[in-house]
Amino acid sequence: MTDAELDSLFEAARVSAPDPSAALLARIMDDAMAQAGARAVPDPAPAPQRRPGGSVRRRLLACVLAGLGGWPSMAGLATAGVVGIWIGYADPVGLDAVTTAMLGGGYGPADLAPSLDTFLQEG
Amino acid sequence: MDMALDASGEETDEDLLAAYGQGDARAARILTLRLTPRVLSFAARLLGDAAEAEDVAQEAMLRLWRMAPDWRTGEAKVSTWLFRVASNLCTDRLRRRRSQGLDSVPEPEDDTPGAEARLLTEARARALQEALDGLPERQRQAVILRHLEGLANPEIAEIMEISTEAVESLTARGKRALKAGLTARRGELGLHDD
Protein backbone atom coordinates (compact mmCIF):
# COMPACT_ATOMS: atom_id res chain seq x y z
CA MET A 1 0.00 0.00 0.00
CA THR A 2 1.32 3.42 -0.94
CA ASP A 3 1.34 6.60 1.17
CA ALA A 4 -1.29 8.09 -1.14
CA GLU A 5 -3.60 5.09 -0.61
CA LEU A 6 -3.19 5.34 3.16
CA ASP A 7 -3.90 9.08 2.92
CA SER A 8 -7.16 8.32 1.15
CA LEU A 9 -8.15 6.12 4.09
CA PHE A 10 -7.24 8.92 6.53
CA GLU A 11 -9.35 11.29 4.46
CA ALA A 12 -12.29 8.87 4.57
CA ALA A 13 -11.94 8.63 8.36
CA ARG A 14 -11.78 12.42 8.71
CA VAL A 15 -15.04 12.97 6.84
CA SER A 16 -16.69 10.15 8.81
CA ALA A 17 -15.84 11.70 12.19
CA PRO A 18 -18.69 11.27 14.69
CA ASP A 19 -20.76 14.37 15.36
CA PRO A 20 -21.58 15.04 18.99
CA SER A 21 -25.24 14.40 19.74
CA ALA A 22 -27.45 17.21 20.97
CA ALA A 23 -27.85 15.29 24.24
CA LEU A 24 -24.07 15.19 24.78
CA LEU A 25 -23.72 18.92 24.06
CA ALA A 26 -26.59 19.63 26.47
CA ARG A 27 -24.95 17.52 29.20
CA ILE A 28 -21.65 19.35 28.73
CA MET A 29 -23.37 22.75 28.89
CA ASP A 30 -25.24 21.65 32.02
CA ASP A 31 -21.91 20.74 33.60
CA ALA A 32 -20.49 24.14 32.63
CA MET A 33 -23.39 25.98 34.20
CA ALA A 34 -23.36 23.81 37.31
CA GLN A 35 -19.66 24.49 37.81
CA ALA A 36 -20.13 28.22 37.25
CA GLY A 37 -23.04 28.20 39.69
CA ALA A 38 -21.02 26.34 42.32
CA ARG A 39 -18.27 28.95 42.02
CA ALA A 40 -20.76 31.81 42.32
CA VAL A 41 -21.92 30.59 45.73
CA PRO A 42 -19.35 31.72 48.31
CA ASP A 43 -17.85 29.09 50.55
CA PRO A 44 -19.53 28.91 53.92
CA ALA A 45 -17.66 30.78 56.64
CA PRO A 46 -15.50 28.52 58.78
CA ALA A 47 -17.34 27.30 61.86
CA PRO A 48 -16.39 29.24 64.97
CA GLN A 49 -14.49 27.41 67.65
CA ARG A 50 -16.96 25.75 69.93
CA ARG A 51 -16.62 26.12 73.65
CA PRO A 52 -16.53 22.80 75.48
CA GLY A 53 -19.78 23.53 77.34
CA GLY A 54 -22.92 23.31 75.23
CA SER A 55 -21.23 21.80 72.15
CA VAL A 56 -23.30 18.60 72.31
CA ARG A 57 -26.52 20.59 72.43
CA ARG A 58 -25.40 22.73 69.50
CA ARG A 59 -24.45 19.71 67.48
CA LEU A 60 -27.83 18.14 68.24
CA LEU A 61 -29.57 21.33 67.15
CA ALA A 62 -27.47 21.39 63.99
CA CYS A 63 -28.40 17.76 63.25
CA VAL A 64 -32.11 18.44 63.77
CA LEU A 65 -31.86 21.57 61.65
CA ALA A 66 -30.04 19.72 58.87
CA GLY A 67 -32.63 16.92 58.99
CA LEU A 68 -35.44 19.39 58.56
CA GLY A 69 -33.79 21.04 55.59
CA GLY A 70 -31.90 23.95 57.15
CA TRP A 71 -33.01 27.43 58.15
CA PRO A 72 -35.43 27.96 55.23
CA SER A 73 -37.44 24.99 56.47
CA MET A 74 -37.28 26.35 60.00
CA ALA A 75 -38.80 29.61 58.76
CA GLY A 76 -41.67 27.65 57.21
CA LEU A 77 -42.15 25.64 60.37
CA ALA A 78 -42.16 28.79 62.49
CA THR A 79 -44.81 30.38 60.26
CA ALA A 80 -46.97 27.27 60.37
CA GLY A 81 -46.61 27.15 64.17
CA VAL A 82 -47.61 30.79 64.60
CA VAL A 83 -50.64 30.38 62.34
CA GLY A 84 -51.66 27.25 64.23
CA ILE A 85 -51.50 29.02 67.56
CA TRP A 86 -53.47 31.96 66.18
CA ILE A 87 -56.19 29.65 64.85
CA GLY A 88 -56.39 27.97 68.21
CA TYR A 89 -56.89 31.23 70.14
CA ALA A 90 -58.87 33.34 67.69
CA ASP A 91 -61.15 30.61 66.28
CA PRO A 92 -61.78 32.67 63.14
CA VAL A 93 -65.29 32.50 61.71
CA GLY A 94 -64.19 31.60 58.19
CA LEU A 95 -62.36 28.50 59.38
CA ASP A 96 -65.56 26.48 59.56
CA ALA A 97 -66.10 27.03 55.85
CA VAL A 98 -62.56 25.88 55.11
CA THR A 99 -62.74 22.76 57.23
CA THR A 100 -66.15 21.92 55.81
CA ALA A 101 -64.80 22.23 52.32
CA MET A 102 -61.72 20.14 53.09
CA LEU A 103 -63.06 17.55 55.47
CA GLY A 104 -66.83 17.55 54.91
CA GLY A 105 -69.49 18.60 57.31
CA GLY A 106 -68.99 15.80 59.81
CA TYR A 107 -65.78 17.19 61.29
CA GLY A 108 -64.90 20.38 63.09
CA PRO A 109 -61.55 21.90 64.10
CA ALA A 110 -61.90 20.32 67.52
CA ASP A 111 -61.83 16.85 65.96
CA LEU A 112 -58.33 17.51 64.70
CA ALA A 113 -56.94 18.10 68.18
CA PRO A 114 -55.92 15.09 70.21
CA SER A 115 -58.19 14.46 73.15
CA LEU A 116 -57.18 13.32 76.61
CA ASP A 117 -60.76 12.61 77.67
CA THR A 118 -60.35 8.87 77.36
CA PHE A 119 -57.43 8.88 79.77
CA LEU A 120 -59.03 11.28 82.26
CA GLN A 121 -62.14 9.20 82.79
CA GLU A 122 -62.22 7.18 85.94
CA GLY A 123 -62.85 3.61 85.39
CA MET B 1 -5.78 27.10 12.30
CA ASP B 2 -8.86 24.95 12.71
CA MET B 3 -12.16 26.39 11.73
CA ALA B 4 -14.56 26.73 14.57
CA LEU B 5 -18.14 25.49 14.54
CA ASP B 6 -19.31 28.85 15.72
CA ALA B 7 -19.39 32.42 14.53
CA SER B 8 -16.68 33.71 16.87
CA GLY B 9 -13.57 32.34 15.25
CA GLU B 10 -11.56 35.40 16.23
CA GLU B 11 -11.82 34.67 19.94
CA THR B 12 -9.18 32.20 21.09
CA ASP B 13 -10.01 29.25 23.30
CA GLU B 14 -7.91 30.87 26.03
CA ASP B 15 -9.93 34.13 25.89
CA LEU B 16 -13.17 32.18 26.02
CA LEU B 17 -12.01 30.05 28.92
CA ALA B 18 -11.04 33.17 30.87
CA ALA B 19 -14.48 34.66 30.11
CA TYR B 20 -16.19 31.46 31.26
CA GLY B 21 -14.11 31.59 34.44
CA GLN B 22 -15.77 34.98 35.05
CA GLY B 23 -19.21 33.36 34.62
CA ASP B 24 -19.81 34.07 30.91
CA ALA B 25 -22.31 31.43 29.69
CA ARG B 26 -21.88 32.49 26.05
CA ALA B 27 -18.17 31.62 26.26
CA ALA B 28 -19.03 28.20 27.66
CA ARG B 29 -21.44 27.58 24.80
CA ILE B 30 -18.87 28.51 22.17
CA LEU B 31 -16.18 26.37 23.80
CA THR B 32 -18.62 23.45 24.00
CA LEU B 33 -19.43 23.70 20.29
CA ARG B 34 -15.81 24.23 19.32
CA LEU B 35 -14.03 21.64 21.44
CA THR B 36 -16.52 18.81 21.94
CA PRO B 37 -16.39 17.51 18.31
CA ARG B 38 -12.59 17.38 18.44
CA VAL B 39 -12.29 15.62 21.77
CA LEU B 40 -15.15 13.26 20.89
CA SER B 41 -13.64 12.15 17.57
CA PHE B 42 -10.22 11.73 19.16
CA ALA B 43 -11.66 9.55 21.95
CA ALA B 44 -13.86 7.58 19.53
CA ARG B 45 -10.85 6.70 17.36
CA LEU B 46 -8.65 5.86 20.29
CA LEU B 47 -11.27 3.71 22.03
CA GLY B 48 -13.18 2.41 19.00
CA ASP B 49 -16.38 2.80 21.03
CA ALA B 50 -18.83 5.67 20.56
CA ALA B 51 -20.55 5.43 23.95
CA GLU B 52 -17.29 5.35 25.88
CA ALA B 53 -15.99 8.22 23.77
CA GLU B 54 -19.00 10.33 24.80
CA ASP B 55 -18.25 9.64 28.47
CA VAL B 56 -14.62 10.63 27.97
CA ALA B 57 -15.59 13.81 26.10
CA GLN B 58 -17.99 14.84 28.85
CA GLU B 59 -15.48 14.08 31.61
CA ALA B 60 -12.66 15.94 29.83
CA MET B 61 -14.89 18.98 29.33
CA LEU B 62 -16.00 18.83 32.97
CA ARG B 63 -12.35 18.97 34.04
CA LEU B 64 -11.89 21.96 31.76
CA TRP B 65 -14.80 23.77 33.43
CA ARG B 66 -13.41 22.97 36.86
CA MET B 67 -9.97 24.32 36.15
CA ALA B 68 -11.13 27.41 34.24
CA PRO B 69 -10.61 29.87 37.13
CA ASP B 70 -7.07 28.57 37.64
CA TRP B 71 -6.10 28.64 33.95
CA ARG B 72 -2.82 30.46 33.41
CA THR B 73 -2.77 32.17 30.04
CA GLY B 74 0.26 31.51 27.90
CA GLU B 75 1.24 28.29 29.62
CA ALA B 76 -0.42 25.88 27.21
CA LYS B 77 -3.10 25.83 24.55
CA VAL B 78 -6.53 24.86 25.83
CA SER B 79 -6.91 22.24 23.09
CA THR B 80 -3.51 20.72 23.92
CA TRP B 81 -4.47 20.49 27.58
CA LEU B 82 -7.84 18.98 26.68
CA PHE B 83 -6.35 16.37 24.33
CA ARG B 84 -3.91 15.37 27.08
CA VAL B 85 -6.73 14.94 29.60
CA ALA B 86 -8.79 12.96 27.07
CA SER B 87 -5.76 10.86 26.21
CA ASN B 88 -5.20 9.97 29.88
CA LEU B 89 -8.89 9.14 30.34
CA CYS B 90 -8.78 6.88 27.28
CA THR B 91 -5.62 5.18 28.52
CA ASP B 92 -7.31 4.44 31.85
CA ARG B 93 -10.29 2.94 30.05
CA LEU B 94 -8.13 0.84 27.73
CA ARG B 95 -6.20 -0.52 30.72
CA ARG B 96 -9.42 -1.35 32.54
CA ARG B 97 -10.76 -3.00 29.40
CA ARG B 98 -7.63 -5.14 29.10
CA SER B 99 -7.78 -6.14 32.75
CA GLN B 100 -11.45 -7.10 32.36
CA GLY B 101 -10.82 -8.85 29.05
CA LEU B 102 -13.62 -6.98 27.36
CA ASP B 103 -13.67 -6.42 23.65
CA SER B 104 -15.01 -3.21 22.27
CA VAL B 105 -18.56 -3.39 21.05
CA PRO B 106 -18.66 -3.01 17.29
CA GLU B 107 -20.42 0.03 15.98
CA PRO B 108 -23.88 -0.63 14.54
CA GLU B 109 -23.87 -0.42 10.78
CA ASP B 110 -25.47 2.59 9.20
CA ASP B 111 -28.26 1.22 7.05
CA THR B 112 -29.12 4.55 5.47
CA PRO B 113 -29.22 4.02 1.73
CA GLY B 114 -26.77 6.31 -0.01
CA ALA B 115 -24.52 6.71 -2.95
CA GLU B 116 -21.86 4.12 -3.65
CA ALA B 117 -19.18 6.67 -2.91
CA ARG B 118 -20.57 7.19 0.57
CA LEU B 119 -20.61 3.47 1.24
CA LEU B 120 -17.02 3.23 0.02
CA THR B 121 -15.98 6.11 2.28
CA GLU B 122 -17.63 4.41 5.25
CA ALA B 123 -15.96 1.09 4.39
CA ARG B 124 -12.57 2.81 4.22
CA ALA B 125 -13.11 4.62 7.51
CA ARG B 126 -14.19 1.37 9.16
CA ALA B 127 -11.23 -0.54 7.78
CA LEU B 128 -8.85 2.15 9.00
CA GLN B 129 -10.46 2.07 12.46
CA GLU B 130 -10.04 -1.69 12.62
CA ALA B 131 -6.39 -1.35 11.64
CA LEU B 132 -5.92 1.43 14.20
CA ASP B 133 -7.45 -0.77 16.90
CA GLY B 134 -4.70 -3.29 16.21
CA LEU B 135 -1.85 -0.82 16.76
CA PRO B 136 0.01 -0.48 20.05
CA GLU B 137 -1.68 2.26 22.07
CA ARG B 138 1.04 4.93 21.80
CA GLN B 139 1.42 4.44 18.03
CA ARG B 140 -2.35 4.65 17.62
CA GLN B 141 -2.49 7.85 19.65
CA ALA B 142 0.31 9.51 17.67
CA VAL B 143 -1.15 8.50 14.29
CA ILE B 144 -4.64 9.74 15.24
CA LEU B 145 -3.36 13.08 16.50
CA ARG B 146 -1.09 13.59 13.47
CA HIS B 147 -3.13 12.26 10.56
CA LEU B 148 -6.74 12.48 11.73
CA GLU B 149 -6.77 15.44 14.10
CA GLY B 150 -4.18 17.24 12.01
CA LEU B 151 -1.98 18.42 14.87
CA ALA B 152 1.66 19.37 14.44
CA ASN B 153 4.36 17.16 15.92
CA PRO B 154 5.43 19.64 18.65
CA GLU B 155 1.84 19.84 19.91
CA ILE B 156 1.51 16.05 19.84
CA ALA B 157 4.77 15.84 21.78
CA GLU B 158 3.29 18.15 24.40
CA ILE B 159 0.07 16.12 24.62
CA MET B 160 1.87 12.78 24.88
CA GLU B 161 4.64 14.22 27.06
CA ILE B 162 7.41 12.87 24.83
CA SER B 163 9.99 14.41 22.46
CA THR B 164 9.16 15.47 18.91
CA GLU B 165 11.56 12.80 17.64
CA ALA B 166 9.65 10.16 19.58
CA VAL B 167 6.42 11.40 17.96
CA GLU B 168 7.98 11.09 14.51
CA SER B 169 9.16 7.58 15.32
CA LEU B 170 5.74 6.52 16.64
CA THR B 171 3.85 7.91 13.65
CA ALA B 172 6.30 6.34 11.17
CA ARG B 173 6.03 2.92 12.81
CA GLY B 174 2.28 3.30 13.10
CA LYS B 175 1.88 4.13 9.41
CA ARG B 176 4.07 1.19 8.41
CA ALA B 177 1.96 -1.17 10.50
CA LEU B 178 -1.27 0.27 9.08
CA LYS B 179 -0.06 -0.20 5.52
CA ALA B 180 1.02 -3.76 6.24
CA GLY B 181 -2.33 -4.55 7.86
CA LEU B 182 -4.44 -2.96 5.14
CA THR B 183 -2.59 -4.15 2.03
CA ALA B 184 -4.68 -7.30 1.78
CA ARG B 185 -7.87 -5.21 1.79
CA ARG B 186 -6.90 -2.83 -1.03
CA GLY B 187 -9.34 -4.47 -3.43
CA GLU B 188 -12.40 -4.32 -1.21
CA LEU B 189 -11.58 -0.68 -0.36
CA GLY B 190 -11.46 0.32 -4.02
CA LEU B 191 -7.77 1.20 -3.91
CA HIS B 192 -6.56 -1.06 -6.70
CA ASP B 193 -7.40 1.44 -9.40
CA ASP B 194 -6.82 4.72 -7.53
Descriptive labels:
heterodimer, A: 123 residues, 0% strand, elongated, B: 194 residues, mainly alpha, Rna Polymerase Sigma Factor, Chain: A, 2 domains, globular, disordered N terminus, transmembrane (chain A)
Arithmetic mean of pLDDT of chain A: 71
**Element-level helix/strand string of chain A:** HHHHHHH
What is the percent of helical residues of chain A? 55-70%
Radius of gyration of chain B: 18 Å
Structural class of chain A: mainly alpha
Structural class designation of chain B: mainly alpha
CATH architecture verdict of the largest domain in chain B: Orthogonal Bundle
The residue ranges of chain B in which pLDDT falls below 50 over 5 or more consecutive positions are 1-5
Kindly report the greatest chain-chain contact and the residue count on each side: A-B, 31 and 45 residues
How much of the polypeptide of chain A forms β-strand, as a percent range?
Answer: under 5%
The total strand number of chain A stands at 0
Share of helical residues of chain B: 55-70%
Radius of gyration of chain A: 32 Å
Q: How would you describe what is shown here?
A:
The complex is a heterodimer of chains A (123) and B (194). Chain A is mainly alpha-helical and 123 residues long. Among the domains of chain A are: 55-90; 92-123, no CATH class. Helices cover 67% and strands 0% of the residues of chain A. The radius of gyration of chain A is 32 Å and the shape is elongated. The mean pLDDT of chain A is 71. With 194 residues, chain B is mostly helical. Chain B has 2 domains: 10-104, RNA polymerase sigma factor, region 2, helix turn helix motif (Rna Polymerase Sigma Factor, Chain: A), CATH 1.10.1740.10; 114-194, Orthogonal Bundle (Arc Repressor Mutant, subunit A). In chain B, helix 2 runs antiparallel to helix 3 (50-67), helix 3 (50-67) packs across helix 4 (78-100) and helix 4 packs across helix 7 (153-160). The longest helix of chain B is centred in the first third of the chain and has 23 residues, at 25-47. The radius of gyration of chain B is 18 Å and the shape is globular.
